[in-house]
Inverse folding.
């Protein structure tokens, strides 16, 4: 354990700017427990993929510290994403502990489909910001998107709210799946019940990861699905703003 803890890493991005505030070192973890129909990283699903690299906390931290001046200047830090980083909880815990010991801001990008066990609570105690991907707040739509029931996400959002853990909620806008007004209004009403709401990011569905499904010889059901127009995306953002949310 400790800095010798080993994680299965899909890839890293040394100067990311979209996964939390400032300039960030983004670690993409291997493995995901959801099967989202619009996933743009299906190559991260299998935990034991031969393309993953085993790295210790110490190895990652050694590289991360080269960029610490950029974090300090820009208000950035480290983001743990995936895949689903909470599939490798022991590593995530030791990694965030090491980052905090170095005074580095930590962001956890997660779908929240996990048990709220003691190690999850400890990870969240070391997390400065959660990027929470809410696939849908409608149980039927959530299952269509992910293949699973919504219960764990609801418990996770409640835990974050009750413990006032700083969270940016994110929602993927998919025409014909998550974009109808009832769906958006239900999301708005749910977010209003949370104590820790700060910012809502509307992420327009895109087709940039479609080639990965082909490469993996997987059936991509949304290959002919349209992407939302700028106007459609802005309509949803404006609806959220009208209800008092800070929207990106």
């Amino acid at each position: 354990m400790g800095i010798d803890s080993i994680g299965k890493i899909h890839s890293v991005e040394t100067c990311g700017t979209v996964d939390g505030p400032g300039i960030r070192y983004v670690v993409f973890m291997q493995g995901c427990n959801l099967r989202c129909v619009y996933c743009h990283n299906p190559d991260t699903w299998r935990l034991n993929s031969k393309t993953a690299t085993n790295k210790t906390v110490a190895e990652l931290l050694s590289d991360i510290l080269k960029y610490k001046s950029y974090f300090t200047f820009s208000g950035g830090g480290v983001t743990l994403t995936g895949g689903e980083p909470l599939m490798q909880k022991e590593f995530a815990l030791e990694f965030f502990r090491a980052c905090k010991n170095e005074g580095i801001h930590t962001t956890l990008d997660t779908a929240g489909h996990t048990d709220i066990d003691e190690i999850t609570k400890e990870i969240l105690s070391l997390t400065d910001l959660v990027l929470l991907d809410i696939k849908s707040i409608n149980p039927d739509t959530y299952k269509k998107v992910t293949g699973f029931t919504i219960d764990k996400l609801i418990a996770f959002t409640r835990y974050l709210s009750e413990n006032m853990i700083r969270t940016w909620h994110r929602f993927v806008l998919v025409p014909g799946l998550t974009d109808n007004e009832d769906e958006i209004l239900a999301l708005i009403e749910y977010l209003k019940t949370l104590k820790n709401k700060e910012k809502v990011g509307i992420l327009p569905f895109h087709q940039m990861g479609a080639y990965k499904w082909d490469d993996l010889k997987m059936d991509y059901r949304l290959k002919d699905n349209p992407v939302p127009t700028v106007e459609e995306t802005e309509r949803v953002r404006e609806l959220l703003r009208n209800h008092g949310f800070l929207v990106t």
